Amino acid sequence: MPITPNEASKRAREICQLAPIIPVLVVEAPAKARPLAQALVDGGLPALEVTLRTPAALEVIREMAAVKGGIVGAGTLITPDDVTAAVEAGARFGVSPGATDALLDACEAAGLPLLPGAATATEAMRLLARGYDMLKFFPAEASGGAPALKAIGAPLPQISFCPTGGVSPANAANYLSLPNVICAGGSWVAPADLVAAEDWAAITALAKAARQLRQT
Fold first, then answer.
1. Core vs surface per residue 167-177: b (16+ CB within 10 A) or e
2. pLDDT tens digits, residue range 118-145?
3. Is 109 exposed, middle or buried (0-12, 13-18, 19+ CB in 10 A)?
């Protein structure tokens, strides 16, 4: 069922409010998808972004979508075809590094809540004019980090963000302390070495630590 930009942002905001961190996942092996998702959900991070950067990504989304308590989204949506494939795989939300009219049209037509990317005030204002007030700030660190996002928030307090790109345990609190930040996207909760070793307990521990990050 189609979705309006306002409703898309409302749903995206609800997902972002589930936990301080949304894991950004690049998964090569579908066989690891379910236990990885379970480890993260067990650690208190239910919203999971699977990036469409590997041949296995769509199958990974299918596998993770079967994990109870998880809400799996597709990241790196670029084209309308990406949107169609993500929805068919079971994605419940989408994330994009930027935003084009074609991508926004496709997500709205498919009823897929989108977290569209913006790095400047102009990009954020254009999305706001369309009806999006829950955005991804990307690439966060390369675009000036928390100080830049704080500055953007001053004249645009009606927009909330999920900063992604260079966010780490060392700087996450800086972002989460901003009034215009709902959550942040980070890959450190599922490092490649722990996934390869299938050390799900260690990943759950990282997720629990990330869950403790709170806005002040």
1. beeebbebbbe
2. 999 999 999 999 999 999 999 999 999 9
3. middle
Sign of CA dihedral 19, 24, 30, 35: negative
Residue 59 falls in the annotated catalytic set: no
In tens, the pLDDT along 73-91 reads 999 999 999 999 999 999 9
Which member of 136, 141, 150, 208 is catalytic?
Answer: 136
First to last CA, the chain: 37
49 is catalytic: yes
The label of the residue with tokens 């645009």 reads 156
pLDDT digit string, tens, across residues 146-196? 999 999 999 999 999 999 999 999 999 999 999 999 999 999 999 999 999
Torsion of CA 61, 163, 215, 71, to 10 degrees: -10
Catalytic-labelled residue, pool 32, 49, 63, 108: 49
**In sequence order, what are the residues at sequence separation of 6 or more whose Cβ sits closer than 8 angstroms to the Cβ of residue 4?**
108, 131
